[in-house]
Specification:
The chain has helices at about 5-15, 20-30, 45-50, 65-70, 115-120, 355-360, 365-380, 390-400, and strands spanning about 75-80, 85, 95-100, 125-130, 140-145, 150-160, 165-175, 180-190, 195-205, 210-220, 225-235, 235-245, 250-260, 265-275, 280-290, 295-305, 310-320, 325-335, 340-350. The protein is α/β, with parallel strands linked by helices. The chain has a 10-stranded mixed sheet with strand order 2-1-5-7-9-11-13-15-17-19, covered by helices on one side. Strands 3-4-6-8-10-12-14-16-18 form a 9-stranded mixed sheet, with helices on one face. It is globular and about 70 Å long.
Length: about 400
């Protein structure tokens, strides 16, 4: 067993790649995220770097477990990972989806914090998806399993969507045990001219599993990127989403829904940077919290001086089902251009008593009426997922938590 720092230092020393050494220097320079930092004030992660971990637990997954995970899903290619390592025998790749060993791509954005650097250096495997120019839309399914006691998994996925091509990608992250597990995950998407990518991430994690993931997207002219995130369960799930728009007429749609219950703690941090004119970004994030669940949403829209005629919306809606549940919301606009349309809003409250009363007068019990209202609330975001089979498994999982 060893710490994450000693583990990635060992990998960096074994590599002849100059960028690996540069990334490790960045890793060393970044501070350990603690509650003293504004964007980490709700969760201290210092022990992620000081505790001892197992990095390569023996294989455990079975065909039955995989079949249960993908039973109702429709897809064109399947990539299976176990504790961050590619599982060839269970995967069904095609010409656009494959597995890779550790590499360092020069066009991947630099890391933004210590976790990013660790995953970029330490991940031994990940998905490589190259969508050729003018390729018809396909659905690639990535299933990542995690298990082991006091284990630490690192994984990175790379998605390159070339000009005039289209892709749908769904990633399921699943715990196979309730032992303490930590996951550091990195996804990088590059959308080239007139391309589109829809990436959906769903987490079914154990009560002692913690995950920190970063999803970043670089967009060129007239590209479209849709990123959705749904943490269904887990002790702590934090998702960082970064979008960088470097050319005009790029479109971005960012969605998410989290439902912390019991002692669960879910966080979503979103930043969209507009560096080119006539682009648009639309954010819709919603949540329900009950018991002692904690949810955090922080969204930032940055509009540079040259990004005139930008159109953005940011909407965050939350419902509390108990007095002890907490939702923290922080929508932000940072605008330096003067010819823009940028709006944001956030609401947090209880379920609508007038709507409940109205439904009860029509013969619907209070419990049934509450469930119907919450299901309708959930549907607002789930409807943004285009693949019906993926939409159905997310909706079913969230309904089960009600």
């Amino acid at each position: 067993m060893q710490t994450i720092t000693s583990y990635i230092h060992h990998i960096q020393q074994q590599s002849n790649n100059t960028q690996a050494k540069q990334l490790f220097a960045e890793y060393e320079a970044f501070p350990i995220p603690t509650k003293r930092l504004e964007d980490w004030k709700f969760k201290d992660t210092q022990d992620w770097f000081t505790s001892l971990y197992t990095f390569t637990p023996p294989s455990k997954i079975t065909q039955q477990q995989l079949d249960a995970a993908i039973e109702s899903l429709q897809f064109d290619a399947l990539l299976v990972f176990e504790n961050g390592l590619y599982h060839d025998s269970f995967s069904r790749p095609n010409s656009i989806a494959s597995a890779i060993t550790n590499d360092f791509e020069s066009d991947i954005p630099h890391c933004t914090n210590k976790f990013d650097c660790a995953s970029l250096i330490g991940a031994q495997s990940g998905a490589a998806i190259h969508v050729a120019a003018k390729h018809e839309k396909q659905h690639v399914l990535i299933v990542s399993f995690f298990h082991g006691e006091q284990s630490y998994s690192l994984q990175k996925n790379r998605i390159y969507v070339h000009a005039d091509s289209h892709i749908i990608i769904t990633e399921l992250q699943i715990s196979l045990s309730n032992e303490p597990i930590r996951i550091n995950h990195n996804v990088s998407i590059k959308c080239m001219q007139k391309s589109s990518c829809e990436y959906t991430s769903v987490q079914h994690l154990g009560s002692k599993t913690e995950l920190i993931q970063t999803i970043s997207c670089l967009q060129e002219q007239e590209s479209t990127c849709t990123i959705s995130n749904f943490p269904i369960s887990g002790a702590y799930v934090r998702t960082n989403v970064y979008v960088d728009k470097i050319a005009p007429h790029s479109h971005t749609f960012l969605h998410g829904f989290f439902f912390p219950a019991a002692q669960e703690h879910f966080e979503t941090y979103v930043e969209a940077i507009h560096n080119a004119p006539e682009c648009e970004t639309h954010q819709l994030y919603q949540s329900i919290a009950k018991d002692n669940g904690i949810g955090v949403f922080s969204g930032k829209l940055h509009v540079a001086r040259e990004a005139q005629k930008t159109n953005t919306t940011q909407n965050n809606k939350n419902i509390l089902l108990s007095k002890t549940a907490k939702i923290h919301s922080k929508p932000q606009l940072e605008i330096y251009a003067d010819d823009v349309s940028c709006t944001h809003g956030s609401t947090t409250g209880q379920i609508d008593n007038e709507a409940l009363w109205y439904m009860q007068t029509r013969g619907i019990s209070r419990d049934a009426a509450t469930k119907l209202l919450l299901e309708g609330f959930i549907t607002d975001v789930i409807s943004k997922v285009s693949n019906e089979s993926v939409k159905n498994i997310i909706m079913k999982a969230l309904e089960n938590k009600l």
